[in-house]
Specification:
With about 400 residues, this protein is an alpha/beta fold. It has 16 helices and 14 strands. It folds into 2 domains: about 240 residues, 3-Layer(aba) Sandwich (Alkaline Phosphatase, subunit A), CATH 3.40.720; about 140 residues, no CATH class. Strands 8-9-1-10-13-2-14 form a 7-stranded mixed β-sheet, with helices on both faces.
């Protein structure tokens, strides 16, 4: 028996006026998602009450770990996914390259949490020039702050143990939750002595990057500039019980985002890298499917396929983009998996769900329960609509995310 978990990041939503008062899942025709719903269909509370909703807490929960007891901060997971294992006393931060609009930092508005989708050589060049800038590097050194650069908008900052924030951390705001807002009210704040120095680093990054040649070319070609760093999601070293000890299954996780790599890596699940997997709408769907099938054929009992694009589109408030991301999840991930899994094993089970809702209305995450479908190749019914309304109508409700994989492996 082989087991597959498909996470459509943020595919759940609330009714949207532009979709005739239906959710994206409710409005779309997705025959492959509906085929999975021909098995068991219900709702699951992936994020515990009182815990901030996000892919970090939700996916930890889905994998079987209680975020109320094990979670030390998002960036610790992302650091692990990038090969940065924190030492005792170190504090990590997620460092986004964002797009700000405005001539003055104090009056700027945030337009994109991912620097207008910057990636590759452009992202690396901007960050390398930033950390070499004398003013920025001086401020960073005084904080004991270093940045691990990646070819994406996602980078990791680390404050060394010698500068450990003994008096607590500032309040941080997730940049994807304040798109279109003036940033002045959302900079690192509070009584922590780190608040002002981190805000000063952000200001210095804006001064260095706003007229950088890479950004001048981006603006000239109609793209947003990646002109400011945004630290958030502080964390410390985290340890997870090995996945095989929990479930007696060997696993693999196929994703394009360091967060999922980090969760998987910390619990001993393989994390193959897929060329062309961008976490955006144009990601390499076929490559992800092939990587999942290769892992199962190579001896893995379980594989997780994570698709980030619906979440990114929802954060941008892009209704059609989110709908198209769900269509591609249906046609280019779930459909091929259902068609080709019998080549690996004629007996398989597939669990499909959203990690959390990402609302087009707010462009942010939400903590409500999400629909799930659990399909068994040996025992399933006729297709039925996979959406929030249909899932609620079954009355099948799992109160906690860690119940999901237990049900999958039952």
């Amino acid at each position: 028996m082989k087991y597959v978990l498909v996470i459509g990041d943020g595919i759940a939503d609330e009714p949207v006026e532009a979709l005739g008062g239906k959710t994206p899942l409710g409005a779309l025709s997705c025959p492959n998602l509906d085929a999975l719903a021909g098995g068991r269909l219900g709702l699951c509370q992936t994020v515990p009450a009182g815990v901030a909703p996000g892919s970090d807490t939700a996916i930890l929960s889905i994998f079987g770990y209680d975020p109320r007891t094990c979670f030390t901060g998002r960036s610790a997971l992302e650091a692990a996914g990038m090969g940065v294992l924190l030492q005792p006393g170190e504090t990590s931060f997620r460092v986004n390259l964002c797009a700000l609009e405005g001539e003055r930092f104090d009056e700027a508005v945030i337009r994109s949490h991912n620097g207008g989708g910057i990636e590759g050589d452009e992202a690396v060049e901007l960050m390398e020039d930033l950390v070499r800038d004398p003013r920025f590097s001086s401020l960073a050194a005084a904080l004991g702050f270093s940045i691990h650069i990646t070819p994406t908008f996602r980078h990791i900052g680390v404050i060394d143990a010698a500068h450990e924030p003994k008096d607590g951390l500032p309040r941080f705001t997730e940049p994807h939750n304040i798109l279109g807002s003036a940033i002045a009210s959302y900079l690192p704040a509070g009584d922590s002595p780190l608040a002002a120095p981190l805000a000063a680093l952000m200001r210095a990054s804006f001064d260095v990057l706003r007229d950088h040649p890479v950004n001048r070319v981006r603006v000239a070609s109609g793209k947003l500039p990646a002109n400011c760093i945004w630290p958030w999601g502080p964390g410390s070293a985290m340890a997870l019980t090995p996945f095989e000890a929990l479930y007696h299954k060997r696993g693999s996780a196929v994703s394009a985002v360091p967060l999922v790599w980090g969760i998987a890596g910390l619990c001993g699940v393989d994390t193959p890298r897929v060329p062309g997997a961008t976490a955006e709408l144009d990601t390499n769907y076929e490559g992800k499917v092939q990587a999942a099938l290769d892992a199962l054929a190579g001896g893995a009992d379980f594989v997780c396929v994570h698709v980030e694009a619906p979440d990114e589109c929802a954060h941008a408030g892009d209704v059609e983009g989110k709908c198209e991301a769900i269509r591609r999840l249906d046609a280019r991930v779930v459909g091929p998996l259902l068609g080709r899994l019998p080549e690996v094993d004629t007996h398989f089970r597939v669990l499909l769900l959203s990690d959390h809702p990402t609302l087009l209305r707010t462009r942010g995450h939400d903590g409500h329960a999400v629909p799930f479908a659990l399909y068994d190749s040996d025992s399933h019914g006729a297709p039925r609509k996979f959406c929030e309304e249909s899932a609620a109508a079954t009355g099948d409700f799992l109160a906690e995310g860690p119940m999901l994989l237990r049900e999958l492996f039952r």
